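Q: Here's a chain of 177 amino acids. Please give me its 3D structure as tokens.
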Amino acid sequence: MKTYNNLNRDLTLVQALNLPHWCIAAGYVRNYVWNYLHGFNKPSSLNDVDILYYDPSDTREQTEKNLESILQNEVRDYNWSIKNQARMHERNNEQTYLSVADAMKRWPETATATAITIGKSNKLEVIAPHGLNDLFDLVVRQSPYFKDTDCFHNRVQSKQWLETWPNLKLIVEETQH
């Protein structure tokens, strides 16, 4: 299968920013896996490339914008989105997030809450606060920490995941806790 992204290149570019507790997350990882599991030779489109990090010592949004510019100058065909998870709780009206994984577990879908990074031993590491079963089982399920069910359903519809990846299974659970 032809890959639609340059995984090593992208990881190396983000690693060079020297961000604390960084990862590439969300659709970048999810779409890659779902494309592979569907046997797609042509990639599905990415709205953006989500880069997360956790740095409570500098929560200025301008810092994120500066970092995005650096990556944009390197790879122009991506819409880079860099967010310090040490400040995102404010935007989401939640308690302070304790880490990148703590922030990710509150995302709308469990399969989207998946990220990759390069660890200290220069090996690929996965961050998946809900585990990897839903991602690899092609399941779209609302995170138990995400309370807005209408928003969840609107995302699934507006992003047209079920049409793009016809083997996906939408799981609607009776109660969210």
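Q: Can you summarize the key feature?
A: The mean pLDDT is 92.
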